[in-house]
Amino acid sequence: MLPILFETIQRDSAISFPLLGNFSLNPPSYFTVFGRPIYFYGVLIALGFALAILYCSKHAPDFGIKSDDFIDLMLWLTPLSIVGARLYFVIFRWQDYAADPKQLFAVWEGGLAIYGGIIAGVLVMAAVCRHKRIPFAAMLDLGVYGLLIGQILGRWGNFMNREAFGAETTVFCRMGLTDPAGNTIYVHPTFLYESLWNLIGLLFLIWFSRAGKRRWDGQCAAIYFFWYGLGRTWIEGLRTDSLYLGSTGIRVSQLLSLVLVLVMGLLLLLQSRKEHPPEALFVNRIKQSQADTSEGGSL
């Protein structure tokens, strides 16, 4: 059990890593603009969204999708996924907000759950794809690259807030938190674990796509959900701030992650036993359609 001290003033704690020779730093959790606090948590999330949009809009044609269609999607998905991430967190921590409902909107202080954002984002994506008549699976394949980019950067917002860390530990890569009185505890830097796990997943999917390994629409998304679920199942078990399913003691994100691993693992296994002709990919159908149109216009 972490001391109450770190639950109340953890943002004032200095951070150190024994692996780096106890190198210590104490970055501020916010800066001010015209007297108003701007939290790095929000800045990093916004930066993650921006880089995700830039990357995906540039590579959208690789999936048979117009860059403009992806930008249109993000105009809806960005705000609604943040709402979804907040609602997910609040639902499972309602006891913390019932007495002071104004805190429901204080997202700059933390309290966004990635699974809530993913669920909301997938629903928005499905609606937009239906409206624009774009295969949902192809758009989802593209979207997971942006999702990984956002997650990699967003976890560093947790670092700036001194949150989303794990239980006390003596592991070699432990992180130290030292309060102003000089008291130190060493914990699992679970934000770092997840950021690095997602970086590995992103690099693999970039290679996977560029090497021409993608055989069916939805394959990259299935790999992402399997990989992320696998890592989150492990990492969630180390955290001290998990959301629980009522009073059951079951960690919501860990349970959902385990379900993702099982479902996506089964999907990938079944699909690996099927034949997937190149023309089945949406991007290849688009290329063939463009080629037929070009040939027809030259006659």
In short:
By secondary structure, this protein is α+β, with helices and mostly antiparallel strands.
Task: List the SSEs and their pairings.
Elements: H1 4-8, E1 14-17, E2 23-25, E3 30-33, E4 36-39, H2 40-59, H3 67-92, H4 114-132, H5 136-161, E5 175-178, E6 184-187, H6 190-210, H7 219-236, H8 252-272, H9 282-298
Helix pairs in contact: 2-3, 2-5, 3-4, 4-5, 5-6, 5-7, 6-7, 7-8
Identify the notable features of this structure and list them briefly.
9 helices, disordered N terminus, two-stranded antiparallel ribbon, single chain, alpha+beta, 299 residues, globular, four-stranded antiparallel β-sheet
Give a written overview of the molecule:
By secondary structure, this protein is of the alpha+beta class. The protein contains nine helices and six strands, in the order H-E-E-E-E-H-H-H-H-E-E-H-H-H-H. The chain has a four-stranded antiparallel beta sheet with strand order 2-1-5-6, with no helix packed on it. A hairpin with a 5-residue loop joins strand 1 (14-17) and strand 2. Helix 5 packs antiparallel against helix 6 (190-210), helix 5 (136-161) packs parallel to helix 7 (219-236) and helix 7 (219-236) packs antiparallel against helix 8. The longest helix has 26 residues, at 67-92. It starts with a helix and ends with a helix. Residues 1-9 have low confidence and may be disordered.
